[in-house]
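Hi, here's the filled form for the chain we discussed.

Project: internal
Contact: R.S.
Residues: 321
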Amino acid sequence: MLTLTPDDLTFIGHDLVRPECVLATRAGALYASHGGGGISCLFKDGRSELIRATSGDVPEDFIPNGYSLMPDGRFLIANVGTSGGVFILARDGSVTCFLDEIDGQCLPATNFANYDAQGRVWISVSTTATNRDLAFNKEIANGYVILVDEHGARIVVDDICFANENKVDPSGEWLYVHETMGRALIRFPIADDNSLGPRQTVAEYESGIFPDGFEFDAQGGIWCTSVVSNRVVRVDADGSQHTVLDAGDPELVARAELAYQCGEFSREFLNGGGDSVLGNCASIGFGGDDLKTAFLGSLQADRITSFRVPVAGAVPPHWNF
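And the returned structure, exactly as it came back:
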């Protein structure tokens, strides 16, 4: 099994701002969310570009978090700023509101917007709390997932303990969700009418892991990132887990784990993960000509981390966009 150290890593880009979510395309483009209100684009020939939100429905506190690339090249972005909502950013900097309320209530800070292979949009809202820090607790499960399809927008699952990234698996039959404070990877069967069936637990993570992003590989494995502890873990198809990379501070992780178990976890521990070479790794995506290069996004680094893997990533919905 692959086990890496920081010496095996390479780094791409510079002066990035909160590149929390990262994805790559077949054409060689690498994209990352930009905390200053846009998307950073890094190209195969070494060029870079910042697409900044400059006109239209731009929230005053626009902090792009999890996003998707759409077939026409625009970006579907979750705003983790307090005003929340999901917005579409065009290449010319214009912004259009995609969804800012559900069931008559304004969306709070919004975590992830997933445009799947069928054109459906799945939106993760980590918590109903205006102050997200209040949901840093394993006893609080007020996160939910919204589906937007041809029938409109509706909440399809709730009672999630800090809902983070969500993705539909390559078969198209399951919606997977990371439950950060529940410390689990969960999934739901997708019915023909796009409703979700009963929750299933795919993996319960060990001490010190606070799951954030994930991606599928071509062999049925799932690669997961952990904030605070700066770990990358591969979950096999049978649910077994292997730590591919551990770049965390053991002392910080021990203190964070104790606080988590006592109901005293706070942003202090989350921010502490930024001291790692990974800068608090938050997402993972596969790219390169053979889909065997892994890219890591982060909350606090100013660059993208990458490393080679022995198994290719599954082809993501945006690969040919």
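Let me know if anything looks off before we file it.
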